[in-house]
C-alpha cells in the first residue's frame, strides 16, 4: 500500500489471491466436510508450470495426511502418473476405457525426484503408447 496526500492506494497484486491460493482455499473448503471422495476435474490446468508443480506437491502432501480417495481428471500424462495409484486412459470418441495402468511407484512422491526415473519414463511410454501409438514408434532414443 502507498499513501499520497493522505489517500491510500492498494496495488492489485497486494490484495488479489493468486490462482494457486484460490485453488488451495477451494480444496480446503471441500475437505472441511471430510469427504470420502474428492473429485478434481483439471484443477491445475490454468496454472503456469512452476505453480502447477507446487500444487501437485501440495496435493501429494495433503493426500498423505488425509488418505481419502481423489478422483483426478487430467490430460497431462506426467501429472496422472505422479499423482495416481491407477491411471485410466479414455478413448477419444466414443469415450470408453482404452487402458488401465496400476501405478506402483513408491510414496511419498516428489516431482523432481520421480519424473526422470526409469520406472516413471517406462510408465509414460506405456500410457503414450495407448494415447498416441503413432508417436511412440517414431521417438528416437538418446545416445551418448
Description of the molecule:
The protein has 7 helices and 6 strands, in the order ββααβαβαββααα. With 144 residues, the chain is an alpha+beta fold. It has a single domain (19-136), classed as Rossmann fold, CATH 3.40.50.300. The strands form 3 sheets. Strands 1-2 form a two-stranded antiparallel ribbon. Helix 3 (49-66) links the parallel strand 3 and strand 4. Helix 4 (77-83) packs across helix 6 (118-131). The longest helix has 18 residues, at 49-66. The termini are far apart. The model is unreliable at 8-16 (pLDDT under 50).
Order of helical and strand elements:
EEHHEHEHEEHHH
The 3D shape can be described as globular
Instruction: Please give the order of strands in the largest beta sheet.
Output: 1-2
Quickly count the domains.
Answer: 1
And the CATH topology? Rossmann fold
Uncertain stretches of 5 or more adjacent residues:
8-16
Percent helix, as a range, is: 40-55%
CA gyration radius, whole angstroms: 20 Å
Concise summary:
The protein is of the alpha+beta class and 144 residues long. It has one domain (19-136): Rossmann fold, CATH 3.40.50.
